[in-house]
Amino acid sequence: MHADRRTLLWVFAINAGFFVVESVAGWLARSMGLVADGLDMLADAFVYGLALAAIGKAVEHKRRVAHTSGYIQLGLAVLGFAEVLRRTFGAVAVPAPWTMVVVSLFALAGNLACLYLLRKAKDREAHMQASWIFTSTDAKVNVGVMVAAGLVALTGTPWPDLLVGTVVFGLVLRGAWRILQL
Which of 14, 16, 73, 80 is the least crowded, having the fewest Cβ atoms under 10 Å away? Predict the structure, then answer.
């Protein structure tokens, strides 16, 4: 129980920190992919906070915490899709691809560290499984943002970034569904 608390505190801190970094960098770089990943990190930080609250509680409480996390992710996906649509039909500047790559590389390192910590955790109950699902999805998102950055650089258009924003929120939606099935 103490080890799970320590693990979740670390992954909470990493996600909260990357929420700030990616959100600010995404806004400055005009990247929907970075903004989407930053918001996903915020939702994950909330989820890890909820998981921390579930440690030592009854199994049913842990299941409710996991479901609450799934609903948070579901809400994030809906809001994210709305923002992608707004940007798709509005005038959008081309994002800064180098910023996207560099920030995503650091975020990927952070997510890999979180996966390492979560893998070492002994608890395999619903709230910890939800934490694993969120973090593994985030690592995939980081790679997607880097691919989009390369395509933005090649095409000189914002479309790859908007596409990766859509994919990010699709992955978030899929993760939410998986968690709600736990």
Answer: 16
